[in-house]
Every structure is written in C-alpha cells, then in structure tokens.
Amino acid sequence: MDGKQKEHYTQRQDTSAVRHRKTCKTNEGAECLPQPSSETSNGANKRIPKRAGHLSSPSRDDHVPVYTLVLVLVLSVCTRFYKITEPPHVCWDETHFGKMGSYYINRTFFFDVHPPLGKILIGLAGYLTGYDGTFPFIKPGDKYEHHNYWGMRAFCAALGSCLPPFAFLIVLELSHSTPAALIAASLLIFDTGCITLSQYILLDPILMFFIMGSHLSMKLYWSSLWVCLSGSLGVKFVGLFVILLVGINTAFDLWRLLGDLSLSLLDFGKHLLARVFGLIMLPLFLYTTIFAVHFIVLNRSGPGDGFFSSAFQSRLIGNNLHNASMPEYLAYGSVITVKNLRIAGGYLHSHWHLYPEGVGAHQQQVTAYLHKDYNNLWLIHTAQESITPIPSPLTKKHLQVTGYGINGSGDVNDLWQVEVCGGKKGDPVKVLRSKVRFLHRSTSCVLCSSGKTLPKWGWEQVEVTCSPYVKETPNTQWNIEDHINPKLPNISLSVLKPTFLEVLWESHIVMIRGNSGLKPKDNEMNSKPWHWPINYQGLRFSGVNETEYRVYLLGNPVIWWLNLLSLALFVLMLTVASLAKQRGVKMEGMRKVHCHTLMEGGGMLLLGWLLHYLPFYIMGRILYYHHYFPAMLFSSMLTGTTYSRESIWGLGCLPEVKNNLMNFFYLFHPLSYGMRGPLAQDPASSMAGLRWMESWEF
User: Fold this and answer.
1) What is the DSSP string of 241-300?
2) Any transmembrane segments, and where (predicted)?
3) Distance between CA atoms of 651 and 33, rounded to whole angstroms?
4) Is there a contact between 634 and 245 (Cβ–Cβ < 8 Å)?
5) Which of 132, 464, 613, 647 could anchor a disulfide with 631, C-beta 3.0 to 4.6 Å?
6) For residue 238, which of 668, 697, 633 has the smallest C-alpha distance?
C-alpha cells in the first residue's frame, strides 16, 4: 500500500484500540488498559471515516457493541410489552388520546392543545390493528370489553422500546465506551417510570422517540434528522427544546468550520445553506404537511368546532355553516348570532333568568354560551335617541351587562356601536370574516367575554362584561356567524372559506392560547419542577383502593437518585478537567480521551437536560410529573458517560451497577405492571417497606 493508505490504516487501528479498550491482566489480577502512543491519542479525538476500497480484518471486539445492542433491544421490548393489555380498562390520559385516535378514524373534528402528529399515529395504529373507533373513552376505569385497544398500546410500547437502544448508540458515539453505553441503556430499560409511560395510549413515548431520534441523528444519521425534528415538534410544542439543542450544536459546528482556514468562504456558504435547507426548510415543510393531513382527515363537524372561528367552521361537513348561504354584509334589521374570538368564548346569549338580588341590577342576564341556541339571536336596529353604571358580578373592574326593556323599548344604555377592528368608521361588517367590537355609547366601554364561569344562578355559563380597557384583545373581539335578513341577497359561504395558511395560523393561535389557559383548578394537584429530579411524587394511572388494579407512575428511585448524584459528579469532574486543561496538565491515553468525552459529549448531554428541564420553571400552565421524562433521558445518558470505564469513578463498577438495577427493578416492578391487595403501609403488601417517601401514594 502507498504511504497515505498505510498512515490511514495505522490511524484506524489506533482508533479501534481506543474505542474497544482491549484489556490485559497484571500479575496481581487487576485489570489494566493499553497505553496508546501520542499518535493514537490524537487519532482518538475524532472519528476517521473508512476510505472506499479499504479492507480491514474485524477483530472479535468489533462485534461486542452489536451483540450488546441486540441484548439491549431484547430486554427493552420484553419490559415494555409484558402485560401490555393489562389492565383492560382506560388508564389516566388514555381517556383523551384514545378518544382523539377514535376521532381520526371517524374523521370527526376536535380540538387539542398539542400539534396533531401523535394523535394521527395513534389513530392509524388503531385502524391498522382492527379498532373501529367506537369506544367512547369517557373516563378512566371504563372497561374496553370487546373493543380492540391493544394495537394502540402496542404502537406506543414499540416506540418506547426504541429509547434504550437509542441511548446506547448515542452514548457509544459520544464516549466510545461500550460499558458507558450499556449503563445508560440499562437505566432506561429498568426504570419503572419509563416502562409505565410506554405501555399506554399516550403522547409521551411518541414524543420521546422523536427527541431521542433527533439526538441520535445529530450524531450519526444526518439524513433522518429533519424527520425527527419535525416529528418532535409535531407531537408537542416542547419538541422545540430538542430543536434548540440541535441548533446550538449546529452553530458550534459552523463556528469550527469558519475557523478552518483550509475551507474557502464559498465552501463555508455551501455548508451554511445545506444546514438551513436540511434543518429549517425541510422540517418546516414536513411539519406543515402534518397539519395538511390533519385538516384533510378531520373534515366533519365535532366537539372542536366551538374553539375556532366561524369561518373555520364553515369548512366542516355537518356544521350549520357548511355550504350555507346568507347575506354577506350586515345591515339594519338583520338578525345575527355573535361569537367571541377567545378560546371557548362562546356566543353572545341572553335568557329570561335575572341576576339575583345583590348582584348588580336585578335585570335579565347576558352571558356567553358555548352551544348554538335560539337565545343567541340578536337584532340590529338604528339608535333612537343615563343611568349609573353597575359593576359586573365577577370582574369588579368591569361593568355589568344586562337585558332591559319590554318589546324592544328601553333607554340610552341599550345603545352599542359596532366597529370593525383594524378598520375605519363606516366600513361594512362582513359575516364570518370581519372582527368587530361593540362600544357602549354611554360609558365608552367595550363588550367583553371575561372567560370566568358564572355560579349556578348563571347556569354556569361564561360571564359577559363591559370592559373599560379598550385595547383590542380576543376577549373583546367578536364575529358575525349566523345572519338573517330577507331584504338582502344571499351568497354561498364557500366563497368565504379561509385558505390553508389562514387555517394553519388560526390553529396555532388557538393551541397556544389553550396551553396558556391550562391553569390548576381548585383542589387540583399541581406538580412543581423541583419535585421531579428527586422523584418526590408520582401519578396515579389506575386504581386507588385495595380492591382495584393499581398502576402508579413513579421512576425507579435508585435510578433517579443516581442520575441526580451523577449530575453533581459530572459538574465536579468537568470543572477538574477544565482546570487541568487550562493549567496545561499533560494527560495521555484514556484520561485524555475521557476528558474530551466529558467536555464535548457530556457537555451536550448536560445542555440537553437543562433545555428540557429549566423552561418549566417559567411556564404559567399546570404542570405534571410526566413532563420531566424527556429531561430524564438526557440525565440517564449523562450518568452512563460519567461512569464509563475510562473514568476513575466508573472503574470496575459495571457489574455492581447491573446487579443493583436488576434488584431494585424487581422490588419496584409492581408499580408498572400493576398490583392488587393491601396498600404499601400494610406489612402484607407486595410493596411493604418500599414507600420511602411520604409523598408516594401507592
């Protein structure tokens, strides 16, 4: 072979020696590691791709990661699919996502605060495995009976089974250490929380599959990265966190390329454009395509209609606005229904019932009602030419809105001026499309749906007020939905249907507002982000008392506390390594390799954990324990990297780690696979003595 081929062959042999860590035995029996030359150490810091035409003889150690990966996959599948059909009733959020899968099968439109990909895949899995979409998913505990639900659970379990192999490959690529990769995978295989989340009809295993797929693709398979990025965001908006992680990693790569003086600016520009196309344009296109499929499939009127604008509803078969005809512009003498533009703002409504004594004026109630009703009809007529305004019943800084007068005769407090939002005086009001507000002539306040629910005397409908704050918000914006005026010509509403981009934009506005509106209800448990890393409290998936089949979402405490300890240990090791490097301390062989792994591979995993955890501290919505699991994936991989064999901390610990994980998995496995009989505080319980924290509710 020529000189270059010989040099390349030597480098690959040296790199292989570092990666596979061929061991030897000293006279005392202690395990030792080969001491590579300086050329070997330099070659270990980067992976040198195999040259075309180059042949090398595979050593026995080359097969070790493959055999280990197969073992990881088998164990992962077994732990996820064991008792997959148990319990045979609805558990926790299956009542939501199973129902939404049914909506896709029935093509019935619904609203959810998350993007649609996860529900589309659940519905597709159910359809392909024989589920007909007829089970109602009313509440947790409802028995599935003859309905074919196992396919949707199996689909989620299949994606959940991919997480440990993904972790193995990621850590192997970052650390070049099979023991480190095996530790990371084992933490996920034997974690009771990961098993529980993977066994039910939920979005979490789908989300985590795409998050881990994104990280794996970023390290090994760039051609599939755009699919995983769009998939992460297409399941939940928290997929933005892994997109940010990939973006930061890409920015570092581009910065390094910019510093490579052998690379021309033209070539650098090509690299930049390739990343813009592959990491922005393609994922955005696929993400948009997901919504196109969503709108095409869900073309029938359903429970989600009321969350969207009247123009949006006109697209849905079975909605009263679909293919309807009515006058295009408002005029005096028109009978209309008026819909508020906030989420679940409702239709402007009035009924015969009066406000009770002591709640403002004892006059007819005006509310917002979420359903179509005859009492939603209003008449527009000219003004005919005040009394003291009264506070609204719930929102005290607003004024009360009532119905007053007999047979259409009242006083000057009945006068409202209709204005087109963003328009000018005299602009016509178009049905469905125009956003309008109603300005009270006497007080200059604007008609508002506060979003607050009235007590029983208000039939638990939505409060309508007159807001003194005239800034335009969805609460004070309305649109005309139904329009009856025999003196005007009708048009088909099909000409007013929104475009795809308008529908896409409206869907995102509604989802974002819906997410921000998820506040804790009275007496509802609201988990705190600081609870999560310490495994402070889990979630009941099924059952409460001794006679019920109980499943409790709780991470294996040994694994979670080990991850927490490893985070602190990693920061300490990273600090020591950074100081040593800054002081010019000479490191050779495996210490140099592990230092590189800590600073680059481990640093990226730490950043992934931070990005998937810290944002929850500033979120105003209600939070749950399961929100931490994407971050837990990164902390588990970081633990594997920290306790790799090259680390002085991980030397010889692998057998002990594996044994302990198996032992504690056996002790806590009833949390995932279900239990009946006495509760944990009873000595006869299978979980007796394992309730180590008072906050655990099993």
Assistant:
1) HHHHHHHHHHHHHHHHHHT-TTS-HHHHHHHHHHHHIIIIIHHHHHHHHHHHHHHHH--B
2) 109-130, 150-172, 179-203, 223-252, 272-297, 558-580, 601-619
3) 11
4) no
5) 613
6) 633
Distance CA(370)–CA(449), nearest Å, equals: 12
| pLDDT over 50 at 366, yes or no | yes
10 Å CB burial of residue 1 (0-12, 13-18, 19+) is exposed
Return the closest-CA partner of residue 297 out of 534, 61, 103: 103
Residue-averaged pLDDT of the chain: 84
- Give the residue among 188, 250, 270 at the shortest CA–CA distance from 559: 188
Give dist(CA 371, CA 481) in Å, integer: 13
Residue 495 has pLDDT above 80, yes or no: yes
The three-class DSSP label of residue 409 is strand
pLDDT tens across 209-238, in order? 999 999 999 988 888 899 999 999 999 999
The two three-digit tokens of residue 479, written as one number: 């649109």
- The percentage of the chain sitting over the pLDDT mark of 90, rounded to a whole number, equals 52
Tally of CB atoms within 10 A around 242: 26
Q: Is the peptide bond before 87 cis (omega within 30 degrees of 0)?
A: yes
What is the C-alpha separation between 511 and 505, in angstroms, rounded? 10
CA angle 317, 320, 321 (to 5 degrees): 80
| Whether the Cβ atoms of residue 476 and residue 467 lie closer than 8 Å to each other | yes
Chain position carrying tokens 């009270």 = 440
> Which residue is it, tokens 């399961």?
626
**Beta-carbon contacts of residue 299 (< 8 Å; ≥ 6 apart):** 107, 109, 315, 316, 317
Determine the angle formed by the axes of helices 557-582 and 629-642, rounding to 10 degrees.
60
Do β-strands 436-440 and 462-467 pair in parallel, antiparallel, or remain unpaired?
unpaired
How many angstroms separate the Cα of 328 from the Cα of each of 257, 265, 316, 481?
59, 57, 19, 11
pLDDT given at position 307: 84
Report the pLDDT averaged over residues 489-518. 89
Q: Which two tokens stand for residue 167?
A: 């972790």
Of the pLDDT bands very low, low, confident and very high (cuts 50, 70, 90), residue 352 is confident
Q: What is the pLDDT of residue 433?
A: 87
Distance CA(522)–CA(544), nearest Å, equals 21
Cross-strand partners of 416: 440
Residue-wise pLDDT for 392-425, tens only, equals 666 667 788 888 766 656 677 888 888 999 888 8
Residues 237, 242, 244: CA angle, nearest 5 degrees: 95
Residue listed under structure tokens 């002790």: 667
- Output the CA angle 339-344-348, nearest 5 degrees: 30
Q: Tokens at residue 84, please?
A: 């997959």
Q: Secondary structure of the chain: what % helix, strand, coil (to 5)?
A: 50, 10, 40
DSSP annotation of 389 reads P
CA–CA distance, 193 with 624 (Å, rounded to integer): 13
Using an 8 Å Cβ cutoff, are 169 and 69 in contact? yes
> What is each CA distance from 410 to 209, 283, 349, 402, 617, in whole angstroms?
63, 59, 18, 12, 52
Cα 573 off chain centre by: 33
What pLDDT does 55 receive? 30
Q: What is the pLDDT of residue 516?
A: 80
